[in-house]
Amino acid sequence: MDNLRLVLWAGFFVLLWLGVNQWNLDYAAPPTNPSVVSTQTKELTTQNNKRAEETAGVLGLSDKLPAVTIQGRSAETAEKPRIASRLVTVKTDVLELGINPDKGGDIVQAKLLKYFPSKNETSTPIELLSYNEESYQYFQTGLLSLNNLPEPNHQQAFVENYKKLELREGQEQVSTSLVWRTNQGQTNLEVVKSYTLKKGRYDILLTYDVKNLGTQDYTFVLYNQLVKKDKKQERSMFNVETYSFNGPIIYDGDSYEKLDISELGSAPTTTTHTNGWASNIQHHFLVAMVPEQNQPYTYSATADPGNSLYKVATIGETPVTVKPGSRARVSTTLVVGPKIQEQLKGVAQGLELSVDFGVLAFLSAPLFWVLEKTHRLVQNWGVAIILVTLLIKLLFYPLTEASGKSMAKMRTVTPRIKAIQDRYKDDKQAQSQAMMELYKKEGVNPMAGCWPMLIQIPFFIAFYWVLLESVEIRQAPFFLWIQDLSSRDPYFVLPVIMGLGMFFQQKLNPAPPDPMQAKVMMAMPIMFTGMFAFFPSGLVLYWLTNSLLSIAQQWKINRATQ
């Protein structure tokens, strides 16, 4: 039993080590070289332009997508991306948008008014869409004419109805509109581009109302594209922010695929499906495009890995024709904000999957559901973690009780096991046979103490991802010095108490007969204390609570079997 226990502990550490290495392999940021960024407005790279030409005809309607324009800087000119000289601002209680009327009426700035970089930095909200020197991200949307007529794409200037618009008290939503007009020969169009924002929500309804005032048909499709340049990201096993996936994903209606930027550079991806969406995700936040559902759309992604530039795009595959004297309306839902699962579920099918719980999502998802329901009752995430841990403990109580009884029996036979080992130290076969006879006679199962630990490891890892990925727990306070359950304990109090609990728990269990094994087991609390010191305090709280409950349970069983 003791050998098996040691193997399980060692396996646990191996799994953790492999996980850290795999995270670094999967999510390591590609190197950046800002000096390579061009001073001219152009597509991601000349190389990508060439690829686009080579794949023309494969993309269907999407080969008509206007060029992705990226303003950059070089060491020669020191010209950097800069925001438009004038913006239309739209503000709700949770979101503030900056819209550039001179370039397609596109969203180029988005501030999350309820979220800040840290507990100590509350003067400036997080910006998911913005221009700055190291990184930028913005939407580009528009209509593409399929009969070579003028089109309101993301390069065109729009006329705004409002300079600034804010959600007022008592209002549930606010809308702003921009207008594009053309009158050339038989083509006379009026296109109204509108954004509708709702109170307390981060999804934005984008609509195009097309009125044909001319004398010929107007046929078009809607496109959306999201352009991003990432800043160089330093990876550290002690910084939980660095281990979540940061990059583009595409959902095909059934499952989603994380796209590797380094691979997109040499092999851009293109797929067509219904009920899908495309997004850039990062730890706790996302920016997503959700086209009209039940309509076929082509989804594409390309990248310039050397400059950490990439683009995801959607374009309609069903042309819309507006007859003279008629009008048509198309729409897209844009999402800019935190990955609040309850909201994401209501926006589009599968959008909640952007909360990346990993391979154990089948455990993490129900654990979060229980945790969230518990939080609604107690209004404290730390207390909710304690109660959910208690619930898990009660769920496995019959199994752990049987294990505890077996371990208590092992304490009583440990001296006899040691005697057998001394008697048959030169005959391992006879030693094993004698020990098996002793186990059978006393009704002891040496494996019984291992199964609860083995079962808890997946729950531990699943709960780790719940606490790591759930924005609901981000910067959530517990009590006293624990003011952010998603970050480490600033004073390492919880890890130390957890280590002491593990030490005391070992004292309740039978000691390994082998002196070397005993020393290794005694070192485990120290090793775990050092490791857990940099884990989210919510996770340490979970493990500490679990340990204390295990101590109480084992103490009770030991007393009953004495």
Features:
about 550 residues; Beta-galactosidase, Chain A, domain 5; 2 domains; 11-stranded mixed beta sheet; 12 helices; elongated; disordered N terminus
Structure description:
The chain is of the alpha+beta class. Helix 5 crosses helix 9 and helix 7 packs across helix 12. The chain is elongated, with a radius of gyration of 30 Å. The N terminus is likely disordered.
What is the top-level CATH class of the largest domain?
Mainly Beta
Q: Calculate the terminal CA-CA distance, rounded to whole Å.
A: 21 Å
CATH fold topology of the largest domain: Beta-galactosidase, Chain A, domain 5
Question: Proportion of β residues?
Answer: 25-35%
Per CATH, the architecture of the largest domain is: Distorted Sandwich
Q: Would you report the number of β strands?
A: 20
Low-confidence stretches: 1-82
What do the pLDDT scores average to?
78
Largest sheet: 11 strands, mixed
Please give the share of residues in helix.
25-40%
Shape: elongated
Estimated structural class? alpha+beta
Any idea how many domains? Answer: 2
In short:
With 562 residues, the protein is α+β, with helices and mostly antiparallel strands. 36% of the residues lie in helices and 25% in strands. The chain has 2 domains: 2-20 and 370-561, no CATH class; 31-356, Distorted Sandwich (Beta-galactosidase, Chain A, domain 5), CATH 2.70.98.90.
List the helices and strands and how they pair.
Layout: H1 2-27, H2 46-54, E1 88-91, E2 95-100, E3 106-112, E4 126-131, E5 136-145, E6 159-160, E7 164-166, E8 173-184, E9 187-198, E10 203-212, E11 218-229, E12 247-251, E13 256-258, H3 261-266, E14 269-273, E15 277-282, E16 285-291, E17 297-304, E18 309-316, E19 320-322, E20 327-338, H4 341-347, H5 361-378, H6 381-395, H7 397-423, H8 428-442, H9 451-469, H10 493-508, H11 515-532, H12 537-561
Parallel strand pairs: 1-7
Antiparallel strand pairs: 1-2, 2-3, 3-4, 4-5, 5-11, 6-8, 8-9, 9-10, 10-20, 11-18, 11-19, 12-13, 12-15, 14-17, 15-16, 16-20, 17-18
